[in-house]
Amino acid sequence: MIRNILFVSHSAELNGSERMLLQTLNRIDRSKFYLCLLLPQPGPLGEEVKKLGIQEEIIHYKWWLTEKSKIWKQPFSWMWNIKSVFQICKIIHKRRISLVFSNSSVAFSGALAAKARRIPHVWSIHEILCGKNPLINFFFGNRALVNLISCLSTRIIVNSSASQKAFKQRKKVRLVYNALEIGNKNIVPKNALREEFGIGKKDFILGVVGKIYREKGQREVILAVDSIRRTYPHVKLLVVGEVKDQDYYLELKKLVKERNLEKHVCFVGYRKDIFNLLRSIDLLVVSSSVDSFGLAALEAMAVKTPVLAVRAGGLPEIISHGKNGFLIESRKPEIIQKEVESILKNPLKVAEVTEEGFRTARERFSLKEQVKEIEKVMDECFEYNRR
């Protein structure tokens, strides 16, 4: 019996959680599941899904959650989103949907529609919802948010132990690590993109990948590069990602100009060819304080690029310091500087770590096994619903 599944994406972009959703949709067993994807607007995710032959629906809805500074806007978004819940109920009826799968904690509409139609709901959580400064906040507090997610879900999938910590009641929660699928045929040689960015063969390239906003820590890496270049003048930095916080981006540009770093720091924007870009750098620096998993780190490891990451979020679950990558306790510029300079002085050690990182990515984080676990969770929901 084929089950009809409605996947609800919180955005139509192609960032980490959306890329994970796309890979999952590509791998799910179509002999067991008929797939439909719901998006809030047209975008690159929808374009890629069409190539997979998966049905797409578009209903306009906003995020139900925000950053702490914008929390006052939430009730207005909730009222605006009521219409989307009724529209999703109609899609569930029209397409005979058996289960709704919501991707990310910020999108509630699918969960509420599934509850109204009395069908199972799976909520895939990609965010850390507890701690002192969670990136996403709920008007009534994050403890209430976690309780609401639990009440509206038959099962909850978390992508790391870090994101699992918010859920004290573990009966519904399943830990399924992010994974990736990558072939070698489309990966360019290591130095192929250097000419595009005006980078010489002798330059040592650091990379920071992710949306540009304060919590991602691009500023601290730029300051570290300012210090490193005094000893290693061939060090350069590629800042990769679209701008989320325009004021912060302008602050970074001003910093680069004030420190005369124009020849050492390059902002390259959003890139679709992320694997090729990661392949072209010499060291990925993950300075984020908010990553629940750290997909960019795993992608770098899979193309034999070493990773230096702050010990935060889910990154220590991927990286073991000195074995398959490098961890630092803080993203303070002087700490980043010290570790990068140590890496520059020890190329043989870096080569060993890089090979182990490659092995870790390929063996521990298999997309095939991850999708099997997701299918298992959905099967659990149908069993639960029959009781």
Characterise this structure.
This protein folds into two domains: 3-179 and 366-386, Glycogen Phosphorylase B (Rossmann fold, 3-Layer(aba) Sandwich); 204-364, Rossmann fold, CATH 3.40.50.2000. It is built from 13 helices and 13 strands. The chain has 387 residues and is of the alpha/beta class. The strands form two sheets. It has a seven-stranded parallel β-sheet. A six-stranded parallel β-sheet has the order 10-9-8-11-12-13, sandwiched between helices. 40% of the residues lie in helices and 16% in strands.
CATH class of the largest domain: Alpha Beta
Summarize the biggest pleated sheet: 7 strands, parallel
Work out the number of β strands.
13
The CATH topology of the largest domain, please? Rossmann fold
Write down the overall geometry: globular
Strand content: 15-25%
CATH architecture of the largest domain: 3-Layer(aba) Sandwich
Q: How far is it from the N-terminal to the C-terminal residue, by CA?
A: 18 Å
What's the overall average pLDDT, rounded?
92
* Series of secondary-structure elements, N-terminal to C-terminal: EHEHEHEHEHEHEEHEHEHEHEEHHH
CATH-assigned homologous superfamily of the largest domain:
Glycogen Phosphorylase B
Rg (C-alpha, Å): 21 Å
